[in-house]
Amino acid sequence: MTISEITPDVDRDRWLAGADFADAFRITIDGAALDARTAAERMLGHAPWWMAALLKLRNGLVRPFGLKTSGADARRPGPMIGMFPVIDETPAQLVLGFDDKHLDFRVLVDVVALNSTSQVTATTLVQTHNALGRVYLAVITPFHRLVVKAMLRQIAAPA
């Protein structure tokens, strides 16, 4: 099981026009075909202890700045996977994300079935709004790359 960083291949204008950061990682999973919801639920449903610890640290650090610690928003109730609201969904693609005062982000989970495998791509788009957003993005980017790869590995883990 190899995870590859690839060039993002999504419609940025549709999902986050003006995005100033984009990356994408891909894994090929052997076995039964997956749909995008199943892949996203396996990725985001249960974080390993170290990711939960990083998230708790992040939430404690950003709370004084008034930044969101979850996508749960009573003004826009809707389906969520983990802490992320579902923006759009088809069997082949699930789009999650939310907007905040420092930045907006989207996570796109795309699945392509190939014979006896499924290719899952996680693409992240970010649009920063101010200096706080740019600093935040610079600080979390190294952690983001580790977290996305770990989340993709969870798709291949036994259910």
TrEMBL record:
It comes from the Bacteria. InterPro entries: DUF2867 (IPR021295). Pfam families: DUF2867. This is DUF2867 domain-containing protein.
